[in-house]
Amino acid sequence: MNKVWTRDEINELLVRNDIAVMRGIVRLFEMQTEDESRVGVAKHKNNRGFGAADAKAGTRMARWLLGMNDRNEVRYPPKDLRHPLCQKILGRYAHGDQVIDRARKIVLKHSAQLVEIANG
């Protein structure tokens, strides 16, 4: 029998597990439409991927995690949001937090979508 995840269970996992946060950022990025992921802006009100307030930061974080350049081409080795250079490169998107903490806020905000993915 397959486990059915609740939003509370997903949120609890995201609060305590950095790997789950990073996987969540990537999954949300994958749910963006092609034009949204290319420019890092939420253009469509489709409740898929990042919302407008998080699209730029979420896209940048996902590209970092996947080793992509600004054209969504894989050009670099994938890196972790806890990588020593991450704060220097992506810190401006963290609003004074550590990048992993901003990522956690983003995935928690969009965790309903992650529940759908987990139960899909």
Would you mind describing this structure in some detail?
This protein is an all-alpha fold and 120 residues long. It has one domain. The protein has helices at residues 7-16, 18-31, 34-39, 55-66, 86-90, 99-109, 111-119. Helix 2 packs across helix 6 (99-109). The model has no long low-confidence stretch (mean pLDDT 91).
Keywords:
single chain; 120 residues; mainly alpha; 56% helix
Topology readout:
Elements: H1 7-16, H2 18-31, H3 34-39, H4 55-66, H5 86-90, H6 99-109, H7 111-119
Q: From the alpha carbons, calculate the radius of gyration and give it in angstroms.
A: 14 Å
Helical content (DSSP H or I, runs of 4+): 55-70%
Distance between the termini: 14 Å
Q: Give the strand content.
A: under 5%
Arithmetic mean of pLDDT: 91
Largest sheet: none
User: Helix-strand pattern, N to C?
Assistant: HHHHHHH
Q: Sum up the overall morphology in one term.
A: globular
β-strand number:
0
Query: How many distinct helices?
Result: 7
Query: Which structural category fits the helices and strands?
Result: mainly alpha
Any idea how many domains? 1
* Model regions low in confidence, pLDDT < 50 over at least 5 residues: none
